[in-house]
């Protein structure tokens, strides 16, 4: 055979061998796969994981920061990348795009629920057991609707005393809550027998709002405020203390999924020492919402908290570290709140119901993460269930004391003190006043108590009314002519605080007397 033919034959054999070897080797799988979803809420974990600019070649690259400052933030995501070893999610923190984080950071297959619920004896009320759930997550750390959680008992009547064990489950997640119906059928039945003190009906606040802060056009069209406000009336001055973000979630969430949407409607507030809390609803008729806490000792600027989306990453981390966002929890209309050294409280009421004999949930939240620690229910009847006192406004001033305001719509206000003994809450009427405060039937927008000077404050739009504990009208502050709604009030550090709407603006008074 010629030398050239031998050479050609060798080359052909080598090519065939190479082709066979390549064909026998499996094609290497793609190093990562991406998916997109509708926006969802993730439950942040407590460990520290890196957050990265990108995921490429199956690895997270370009470290931005860590999760250590975002443990109490609102976390959202709509994209994931499954790499060879881990799955990564692109996260939005308090409404701001941040980066990619390992799925292992999230609380996965977890149900967080109150350990105990204590119900007042009331034949007219049944407790929805899923109200005890702070959140439930799937295997990827996504928060799911409480309605998707299986409950061994979905509703418990408070007609008959007894104890119930409720087991919640979702996938591999489990939690147990113990529900007790208290035995004393007379608990919460009291006497509204105080002679009302002559009051006033002279003032005319706006029934709604006609004004907004300077740079607020709508919840979707606004820019940060650059100037504070000062309002003076009758010896009291209110000055801007803190402008708040319109929302702590993405604007695209507005009016949509209630779990994702943190804001934009602020309804009530509570304050204890340096911690200020506000309730945020998606819609004004929602019975669930989010509670957000701000550390006023750390957030000293009146303006910067509005700028979470545009401030530097280092500043954003600092601010997020001193803001606590609750999961979706029962709030009712959100205008009955309180805060103590360990807990935040919401009295869950339906403000569309003028008066009925249903019980009301008193929800105790852990201050650390604003998850539900315990739930009681209370009732308030004047002698019998034929004369109920359903409270739309209340303030919790200690872990065993609450004050409630009842207005029957007929020129009569009652002031009630609730005291807790064990799990029982009993009420005593401490004050009563004839009059409506206002001449135009404008609604009450705020209610709080000053335990040092033993005075109540009742808020209407552009007005605050000072009332003695016995119910005597003492003084009116206003009109402030702001045109904005007052959404809650509180007393702390010998100052009265009120929170305006559109945009949410906390104002602090001079010293009380």
CATH class of the largest domain: Mainly Beta
Q: Please list the strands of the largest sheet in the order they lie side by side.
A: 12-14-15-8-28-27-26-25-30-31-32-33-17
- Domain module tally: 3
- Enumerate the spans where pLDDT stays under 50 for 5 or more consecutive residues: 1-29
Which percent band covers the strand fraction? over 45%
Q: What is the second-level CATH architecture of the largest domain?
A: 6 Propeller
Number of strands: 40
Name the average pLDDT. Answer: 94
The value of Rg in angstroms is 28 Å
User: Which structural class matches the secondary elements?
Assistant: mainly beta
And the CATH topology of the largest domain?
Neuraminidase
The number of helical runs is 2
Portion of residues within helices: under 10%
Biggest pleated-sheet summary: 13 strands, mixed
What gap, in angstroms, lies between the N and C termini?
118 Å
Envelope shape: globular
Short summary:
The protein is mainly β. It has two helices and 40 strands. The strands form eight sheets. Strands 12-14-15-8-28-27-26-25-30-31-32-33-17 form a 13-stranded mixed sheet, with no helix packed on it.
Description:
With 513 residues, the chain is mostly beta strands. It has 3 domains: 32-105, Roll (SH3 type barrels); 111-181; 189-511, 6 Propeller (Neuraminidase). The protein contains 2 helices and 40 strands. The strands form 8 sheets. Strands 12-14-15-8-28-27-26-25-30-31-32-33-17 form a 13-stranded mixed beta sheet, with no helix packed on it. The protein has a 6-stranded antiparallel beta sheet with strand order 1-4-5-6-2-3, with no helix packed on it. Mean pLDDT is 94; it is low at 1-29.
């Amino acid at each position: 055979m010629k030398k050239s033919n031998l050479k050609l034959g060798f080359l052909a054999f080598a090519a065939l061998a190479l082709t066979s070897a390549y064909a026998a080797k499996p094609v290497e799988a793609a190093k990562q796969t991406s998916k997109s979803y509708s926006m969802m809420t993730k439950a942040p974990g407590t460990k520290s994981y890196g957050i990265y600019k990108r995921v490429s070649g199956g690895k997270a690259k370009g470290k931005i920061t860590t999760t250590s400052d975002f443990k109490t933030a609102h976390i959202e995501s709509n994209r994931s990348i499954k790499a060879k070893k881990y799955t990564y999610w692109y996260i939005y923190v308090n409404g701001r795009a941040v980066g990619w984080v390992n799925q292992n950071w999230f609380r996965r297959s977890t149900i967080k629920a109150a350990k105990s619920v204590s119900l007042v004896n009331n034949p007219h009320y049944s407790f929805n057991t899923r109200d005890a759930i702070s959140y439930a997550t799937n295997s990827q750390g996504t928060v799911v609707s409480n309605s998707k959680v299986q409950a061994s008992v979905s509703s418990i009547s408070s007609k008959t005393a007894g104890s119930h064990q409720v087991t919640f489950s979702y996938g591999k997640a489990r939690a147990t809550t113990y529900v007790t119906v208290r035995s004393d059928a007379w608990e919460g039945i009291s006497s509204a027998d105080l002679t009302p003190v002559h009051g006033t009906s002279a003032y005319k606040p706006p029934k709604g709002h006609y004004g907004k802060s300077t740079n607020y056009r709508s919840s979707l069209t606004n820019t940060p405020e650059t100037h504070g406000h000062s309002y003076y009336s009758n010896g009291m001055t209110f000055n801007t203390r803190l402008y708040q973000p319109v929302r702590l979630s993405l604007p695209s969430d507005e009016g949509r999924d209630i779990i994702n949407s943190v804001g934009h409607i602020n309804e009530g507030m509570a304050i204890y020492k340096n911690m200020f809390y506000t309730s945020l609803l998606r819609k004004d008729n929602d019975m669930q919402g989010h509670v957000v806490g701000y550390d006023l000792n750390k957030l000293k600027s009146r303006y910067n908290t509005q700028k979470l989306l545009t401030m530097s990453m280092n500043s954003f981390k600092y601010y997020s570290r001193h803001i606590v966002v609750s999961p979706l929890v029962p709030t009712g209309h959100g205008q009955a709140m309180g805060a103590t050294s360990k807990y935040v409280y919401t009295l869950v009421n339906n403000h569309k119901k003028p008066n009925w004999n249903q019980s009301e949930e008193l929800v105790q939240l852990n201050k650390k993460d604003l998850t539900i620690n315990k739930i009681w229910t209370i009732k308030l009847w004047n002698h019998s269930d034929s004369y109920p006192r359903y409270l739309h406004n209340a303030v919790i001033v200690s872990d065993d004391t609450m004050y409630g305001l009842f207005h029957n719509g007929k020129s009569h206000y009652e002031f009630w003190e609730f005291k807790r003994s064990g799990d029982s809450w009993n009420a005593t009427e401490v004050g009563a006043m004839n009059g409506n405060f206002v001449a135009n039937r404008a609604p009450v927008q705020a209610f709080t108590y000053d335990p040092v000077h033993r005075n109540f404050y009742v808020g209407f739009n552009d007005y605050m009314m000072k009332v003695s504990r016995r119910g005597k009208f003492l003084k009116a502050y206003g009109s402030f002519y702001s045109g904005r709604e007052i959404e809650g009030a509180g007393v702390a550090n010998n100052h009265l605080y009120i929170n305006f709407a559109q945009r949410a603006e906390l104002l602090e008074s001079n010293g009380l007397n």
